[in-house]
Specification:
alpha+beta
């Protein structure tokens, strides 16, 4: 059950949306500005899968991640990791680690030497998880209209 599979059409995009909405709900009232998850739709997830990659574990999915190649970033390119979610009852079983390992494999196959992700400054427990997975903080940025950092960028080289 820890083997990620690439999501392609036809797929239950609504199940992925429900997973993300459920697991990101704890951020409501905690992060500012609100999560982009509120604008996410099943159709947008299908589009992500068609233009980049969506990976999930389980049927129905209990963990997922979006992977987006960014060939122009860092002069050499990076693979951006987004919407990493693991169902609360499935945490601490290596599912996030399996999805990050998949990201590393995909980055290597795409010739991208760096994994990159962002986390909101308020989500310190996520920062600890990302550091434990080998990521290091490289920048703090502000969403438009904010005069303080709202997001932290983490990177990890692909061996």
């Amino acid at each position: 059950m820890t083997t990620p599979c690439r999501c392609t059409a036809p797929y239950d995009w609504q199940a992925l949306l429900t997973l993300i909405q459920t697991e990101f709900a704890a951020m409501d009232g905690r992060i500012d500005p609100p999560s982009s998850m509120h604008r996410l739709t099943a159709a947008a997830i299908a589009e992500q899968a068609a233009t980049a990659e969506v990976w999930a574990i389980g049927t129905p999915p209990v963990a997922c991640v979006f992977l987006t190649p960014r060939p122009d970033s860092l002069d050499t390119g990076s693979l951006y990791i987004g919407k990493l979610a693991v169902a609360r009852g499935q945490r601490r079983q290596g599912l996030a680690r399996a999805l990050i390992a998949t990201a590393e494999t995909r980055a290597r196959a795409l010739g991208l030497p760096v994994l990159e992700l962002q986390s909101r400054v308020e989500l310190t427990e996520n920062h600890d998880t990302f550091r434990a997975l080998g990521f290091i903080e490289v920048a703090r940025t502000a969403h438009p209209g904010y005069d303080r950092p709202t997001s932290i960028t983490f990177r990890r080289p692909v061996p």
